[in-house]
Design a protein that fits this description.
The complex is a heterodimer of chains A (335) and B (235). Chain A folds into 2 domains: 131 residues, Nucleotidyltransferase, domain 5, CATH 3.30.420.40; 168 residues, ATPase, nucleotide binding domain (Nucleotidyltransferase, domain 5, 2-Layer Sandwich). Chain A is 45% helix and 18% strand. Chain A has 10 helices and 10 strands. Chain A has a 5-stranded mixed β-sheet, with helices on both faces. In chain A, strands 8-7-6-9-10 form a 5-stranded mixed β-sheet, sandwiched between helices. The longest helix of chain A has 27 residues. Chain A is globular, with a radius of gyration of 20 Å. The two termini of chain A are 26 Å apart. The longest helix of chain B is centred in the N-terminal third of the chain and has 18 residues. Chain B has a 5-stranded mixed β-sheet with strand order 3-2-1-4-5, sandwiched between helices. Chain B has a 5-stranded mixed β-sheet with strand order 8-7-6-9-10. Chain B is globular. Chain B is of the alpha/beta class. Chain B folds into 2 domains: 128 residues, Nucleotidyltransferase, domain 5; 90 residues, ATPase, nucleotide binding domain (Nucleotidyltransferase, domain 5). Classes of the chains: A alpha/beta (335), B alpha/beta (235). Chains A and B meet through helix 2 and helix 3 of A and helix 1, helix 2 and helix 7 of B.
Amino acid sequence: MIVLGIETSCDETSAALVAGGRTILSSIIATQLDLLRKYGGVVPEIAARRHTELIGYVIKEALDAAGKTLADVEAVAVTSRQGLIGCLLVGVAAAKSISYSRKVPLIGVHHIEGHIFANRLSNPRMPVPHVCLTVSGGHTMLLYVPDSSRYELLGTTLDDAAGEAFDKIAKFLGLDFPGGPVIDKLSRQGDHEAFSFPRPMIKSKTLDFSFSGLKTSVINAFKDRIARHEELPLADIAASFQEAVVDVLVTKTVRAAADRGVSTVSVTGGVSANSRLREVFRATCRRKGLEVFFPDLSLCTDNAAMIAAAGYARIKLGEISDLRLNVFPNAPLEV
Amino acid sequence: MLGIDTSGYANAIGVVNGGRILADHTFKASTDSLEQIVANIDSTLNDAGLTLEDVQGIGVGLGPGSWTGIRVGVTVGKILAFSTEKPVCGVSTLEALARGARTRSSLICAIVSAGTREAVYAGFYRPEGGNIARTGEYYFGDVRGLSKLITEPVVIVGDGAKSYLRIISQEAGILKADCKAIEAAPSGSVIAGMAEERLERDESDDALSLTPLYLKESTARAFVNKYRNSTGVKG
């Protein structure tokens, strides 16, 4: 079954064709990086306008790149839950139109379930049950995954998402947007032990996270020097901040795996592209006898291939959305 | 010909054939136009005894109006056209409203509320050989500012035309008796009819590049642009 995936939940207009929930025939992502840099973040109305301009082109490009036409598409999967409302509805309006006119099934997908499936696309043999850390600019969640398409929430962030903390620290340090890749790159030239930043909730009994205090602590440590226009050891600050985030994420995920008695860890979402996070996860998991999986770098950030894969799994479970599918910007992941 | 307009917190859907209205419905869509849009298109086509396959072209109201509304209508219009390989014609919602006054001889001013109090989108049209032609630029601003542009008797068309006329005749110093107010909301069949006329003239739009007629940049962009201009920061 060839599924057309559509994803417009935030700032990426994306369409993809995926065969059998597993083989990516095409994956087109039109980023709004130019707008993000210009405005220092996502402006919902501007992003929604860009989606409306691009959606048709992106779908056509996904078909052309796969050498297919809409006649080959057997189902349409679209992100309908969690994201910016004005952005989500562009993708859902497009998906409904194709489903109605081509008489193929429509399935609305939760954005986070898409991220979970990004790792299955990259690692088809990744076993269940496992523990999954999904972490991006919009969310930070620890899940127990007993089998395909079922989730148990173990912990979540109580304030900022980890990726959001990267963005805010990058902004504070006068670095480019988005902060994740910039801090990752800069940190390679820095000493991650130069500064000792707090590891919020690392010892707490719950598996929840908090990154707002870490962010404040970094800002408080340097704001006076920034106000005096003093030169700062940016690479050392970036590396030390990143180390604190990585430390918390790895420690809690590994503890969750031990709690649940599983030997497999899945790390996904935009922050899973972070090179230091991957390095520490690999080293720690090797030491603990755990196997860790990451998506291909192209599948870490928002993309429609993961939505197509998640939608395919839902359809295989007999689920289907009707043409009255609406968008739910704050819907939690069904667990 | 199928016509869709979602600019006014409603799904206005109509079907015409050779200028004859086969079906015309306005479905209320209080918070957004998305949920029922496809079901409403389907039931309107059924009402006309048709299916989507029978449709020869799609007309879509580009706005101005509710930003969320016009995004839904334009996306559905363009993707349906792309998916069925049928032609699509975008139509100004203001022009569609002004068409309701085309038999009059005076200046026509079509008005759509811009959501906030007193703010409106407007367009001026003159009757021309049984049809109408736009004169001047589209307007966005408050009703009083609009009044300053009016120096002759006028026909006001739109939702709330009577109350707009009251303000305009007062502000512009024109006798209300010389003017006329026509209460009207966007109609799917008018959009379909105008699209049909364009198709007959061998005109249509490129589905993939079709975009709404916002007539106003987003508040955030306006703010950033203003700030950028005042400080000389280059963007």
